[in-house]
Structures are given as structure tokens and as C-alpha cells.
Amino acid sequence: MLKTGSRSACLGWLVLLASSSACADDIKVAVAANFLAPLQQISAQFSAETGHQVLISSGATGQLFTQIKNGAPFAIFISADQKTPAKLLAEKLAVPGSAFTYARGQLVLWSADAKRVDAAGEVLRQGQFKHLAIANPKTAPYGQAATEVLAKLGLNTKLAGQLVQGDNISQTKQFVDSGSAELGFVALSQVYKDGKPGQGSVWMVPLEDYAPLYQDAVLLNSGADDAAAKALLAYLKSPAAKAIMHQYGYLD
To answer: From which residue to which does the signal peptide run (predicted)?
Structure first.
């Protein structure tokens, strides 16, 4: 049985679906890199049910914010934090009252080497690696979270010369995938699916070691009158979308 909140979200989506399914539209969405894979799966399911096509552009939250400020015609912004959608609302670039938290992300330390990262993250203190990848903390919330973890461990100065920065969390993981860095701080969603980690080795960073990664979505001004965009935002709240998010390790 659905909980009251889930039932309301589902009914809201069905109402929007009924009003928008008559005409299939394209929906331009800007999404933070950590949520790209889940959104692709959610969008495929949404498109199959509605006929609407979701056109996705992915990048660092800060980079996408700049694109939106410069007039990029996105209808929806799916952020990796709460403050960036709030800034868009403050600058009157998004529809008042449309922002909501769709998930809480988790940070992990990951290596493609199945034996390199231990379950307590002691590999960071041991220092037997040349490079540690993180996303740019100025533009990527997961990069900011990584710097918070290093500071709490007292390693930010010690490891400063070994850091390599990705423009976003996807590039950060690519550094580790390619061997350019032996390990890196990435989003759990990048290495976790169907309830379990994928290949490699991982340290699940304790949630108390960094500020909560609450992630908000918001309807942008160009989508204010777009029924299809509103239907997609409502679908993000549906039990079907939440189930996919949970498969990638996101918390409610």
C-alpha cells in the first residue's frame, strides 16, 4: 500500500499525464553529473509512458547554473545541491514554489582496484598512492563534500599535492577509470546499482563527515507553461522514480 505522500505524488503525476499525453513534446533538462545515469533510466520509463522525449544535458552544478544564467533554454534543472536552485529562484530565473528535494546523495572513496580501498578509508592516511581525484569543489557539490572529508581527517594539507580535479563528478570518475588517479571521491550512484557496489573497492564515507547532499530540482522560467516539463517533475516524486533512485544508492 502506498503511503499518503507517495499516493498524492502518484495521483498528481497521473493528472499531469492525462493533461499532457495528448501531445508529445521534447523536454530540455539540465542535470548534475552524479544523477545522469538514474535520470536516463527514469526518463526512458517516463517517455515510454507519456511519449514525451527528455533531452538531457549533464555537467557540474555550478557550470549548469552559469549556462542557465546565460540563457540556455532548459525547462528543468536537477541540481546536486539545494543552494543553486535557491539562487535561481532568488534571481527570478525559476518558477516560485517549484523547487523540491528529490533525493539525498552519498559520497564514496572508490578505486578500480578491488584491493586498494579498505572499508574504513585508511588508505588515505597510508598515502600509498600518487593521485587522488576529486571534483572541482567550486562548481561540484560532491567535490566540496570531498574537501570537507579531507579536512575532517586532517589530510587536506598533506594530500594537496596529490589531488587531481575533474570539472565534474563524471570526469572525476573517468580519472580513476583510466588510471590517471588510483582512487577518487565520487558519487555512490556512479559505482552502486541494484542495491550493491559494482567492480572495484569502496569506502562508504560516513554521512556525518560532510554536509548533507540534499539535491533539489526546479522548474525554470522557460518551462513555466510547459505541461510536459511539469509532468516530468511530478514523475520524479513518483514511487517508480524513487525505486530507481534507491537502486543507485540515493536516500530519501
So the answer is: 1-24
Q: What's the CA gap between 52 and 27, in Å, rounded?
A: 7
Quick check: 143 and 136 in contact, CB under 8 A?
yes
Which single residue is written with the C-alpha cell 545515469?
Answer: 37
Q: What are phi and psi of 22, to 5 degrees?
A: -65, -30
CB-CB contact of 78 with 214 (8 Å): no
Which CATH number goes with the domain that contains 131?
3.40.190.10
Q: Which helix (H) or strand (E) holds 12?
A: helix 4-20
Residue 58, domain extent: 4-103+214-247
| Confidence (pLDDT) at 192 | 82
Q: How far is CA 200 from CA 37, 73, 190, 224, in A?
A: 18, 38, 12, 43
pTM of the shown model: 0.89
Average pLDDT over residues 53-62: 98
Are 122 and 129 spatial neighbours (Cβ–Cβ below 8 Å)? no
In three-state secondary structure terms, 129 is coil
Note whether 229 and 190 are same-domain residues. Answer: no
Phi/psi class of residue 249: alpha, beta or left (left: φ > 0; alpha: ψ in -120 to 50)?
A: left
Please indicate, yes or no, whether residues 192 and 234 belong to a single structural domain of this protein.
no
On whether residue 209 sits in a domain, the answer given is no
SS3 151: helix
Contact predicate 103/250, CB 8 Å: yes
Read off the amino acid at residue 112: A
Q: Is residue 240 part of a domain?
A: yes
